[in-house]
Amino acid sequence: MSERGFVVALLGAESTGKTTLAAEIGTALAARGRRVTVVGEALREFCDRNSRTPRRDEQAAIASAQSARIDAAAMRTAIVVADTSALMIAVYSDFVFADPSLYPSALAAQRRCDLTLVTELDLPWRADGLQREGEHVRAPVDALVRSALAGAGIAFTTIVGVGGGRVEAALRAIDAALATRRSGRSSS
Length: 188
Hints:
Layout: E1 6-11, H1 18-31, E2 36-39, H2 42-50, H3 59-74, E3 79-82, H4 86-97, H5 103-111, E4 115-119, H6 138-151, E5 157-159, H7 163-186
Parallel strand pairs: 1-3, 1-4, 2-3, 4-5
């Protein structure tokens, strides 16, 4: 593939449906005949593989791995749906370890994404393995995500709703962003 694929990054606090939404978006776009790759979450895989959450000194490598996965997928497919980005790892590093050092590289990687979708806190919290802190961290993490994006001037669309409504909201945002990208390319 000669052109970088269109990258959609899903961000949001824990238990806001990012993983489910990423899979559903991927399925819906594939059903439309689109070439799509869903990039999984490196942090989740780290926790599953090591049976623990990462230490402070492991955060940067996980963030870098997430960005590398997204970039690699964007070189080989038309649309990439990323179940999170390095920015979520930077936010958690800041929140858990009071370490803001990952923001510059995470925000640079986020700028390579064509569309950022932030999941709203409108789903009930559910325990899901090692990486879930608890419902009490959702609001402050959500605030950090939105603040980091706004502070960096990165536009985002908030995705709300449940079930099919949530997927449809995400697909509408993707369709609009793809149309803008196509019209920008045809006018250059």
